[in-house]
Amino acid sequence: MEKQPLLLLGPLMPYLTEELEKRYAIEKLYEETDALGFLQQNAERFRAAVTSTFTGLKADMIDLLPALEIVSSFGVGTDSLDIAYAETKGIKIANTPDVLNEDTANMAITLLLAATRDIVANDRFVREGRWARGETPPLALGIEGKKIGLVGLGRIGSVIARKLTAFGCEVVYHTRNKKHDVSYEHYSDLVEMARRCSALIAILPGGDATKGVISREVLQALGSEGTFVNIARGTVVDETALVELLQSGELGRAGLDVFVDEPNVPEALFALNNVVLQPHMGSATVETRKAMADRVVSNLDNYFSAR
Ligand code: 8YV
User: Fold this and answer.
1) Cα gap 266→52, rounded to integer Å
2) 179 and 265 inside one domain
């Protein structure tokens, strides 16, 4: 039976490309020197496409693919996908939720522990020979018994909450609406929650609705003994304020996996000893990325097996 044509909008991990190639007649738009010309000649062939949170899916691309019925996206975040516009065209958008919850939550916990225990600064301390020269690093911070505020309590946030509880932390959360199926204390006022917490962990969706939700005021309320962890999107925090407050010490520590203009990270952070930096590695383990890839494939297989 002839394979269904499938358009890959951006580069994918090799395993995913190989799995798709077994099942579909794939075309790699990102390898076309004249992508627009290619689409003008071939768009009608594609009922399905694959993208990722990094490549995204904007209205102008949707308009160039009039036969599109389904787009399977590698990643759980949908802030780079124009879902509303896709829905007006009757296009189904499928992402890869759930399979990345545990490892992304583990990265949040890792960043919290690495930041509060000064892991990166003390690694540098040893490598620079300062310990051998008789210097002693400053005491770090514990998390046992501390109040940790989650900004967002969705699938991943709920796993973070479970893990923090196992570490003996008191979990509280801020969401627009209180959740009635959880026992954690809800704060409708994020500044108030920040004021009462030892750390904040951002795990809310990216996009216009959450842009700058973690403001300068929130970070100042968290304060010089506070720790901010971002495992969500760079856009959810006032990044300029974050950098300035970390530089001045008005914010104690940070563990950051995401940034506004990835892969470009504010260089002022590089010299700081009170921040841990990661290149958007939340779900980036062998096991989880394979599970995400398998989900991208199953999204498509399930769609076409029902038609
Ligand atoms: C991925 C993510 O690493 O799933 C998401 O939304 O941010 C991460 O899990 C990345 O976006 C994959 O492109």
Assistant:
1) 24
2) yes
